[in-house]
Design a protein that fits this description.
Elements lengths: L1 H10 L8 H5 L3 H133 L5 H20 L4
């Protein structure tokens, strides 16, 4: 820097009169000093500043390129994820529809099974009731036979005028019941 200051001082004229025309144009010594200063600044810029600026610009360019590539990759990944999501959603809908259809079939089969079971239980209940009715009818018929037999033996004893013994009495009751049973079954003959 001291060199530049010395050159600037050496180039200045010593108290000369200057016309206006001369004031418009620089003195040749000033041009030389300016040219040397420009060369020094240009050399400095070319050697240290411009390479760093170029390096920073290259790094910035690479960073932007990398960011663009990452953004493009992210966009592709997002599109892939969206496609996967849509596919999974479609599969989930299909699965839900399949499950609903299976549930309908299962419910229909269950309804049929329950109806069949209810029908079977009702048949069993009716059959059981019929068996109970038959058993009750047979029991009542047995009691009726005994009562009719006892009455008939009393009547026979009154008509005959004598008391019948127990053995003969049982034989008469059995014979009478057999005859009544034949009449009741339509086997009279």
């Amino acid at each position: 820097m001291t060199i530049i200051a010395a050159l600037v001082l050496a180039a200045e004229p010593v108290a000369e009169e200057v016309s206006e025309k001369q004031d418009l144009y620089p003195a040749p010594a000033e041009l030389v000093v300016g040219l040397i200063a420009f060369a020094i600044v240009f050399a400095f810029m070319a050697k240290w500043v411009l390479p760093r600026v170029g390096k920073v610009l290259d790094e910035r360019r690479e960073k932007i390129r990398g960011d663009l590539e990452k953004a493009e990759q992210t966009r592709r990944d997002a599109e892939k994820e969206l496609a996967d999501y849509r596919e999974k959603l479609a599969n989930a809908r299909e699965e839900a529809n399949r499950i609903i259809e299976e549930a309908r079939k299962t419910a229909e089969q269950l309804r049929k099974d329950m109806a069949a079971k209810a029908e079977q239980e009702s048949r069993q209940t009716v059959a059981k009731a019929q068996d109970e009715i038959r058993a009750e009818r047979d029991r009542v018929f047995q009691e009726l036979q005994q009562q009719v037999g006892q009455l008939s033996v009393r009547l026979a004893g009154i008509v005959v005028g004598e008391e019948l013994d127990a053995e003969r009495h049982a034989k008469l009751i059995d014979d009478y019941v057999k005859q009544v049973s034949k009449l009741g079954n339509g086997d009279a003959g």
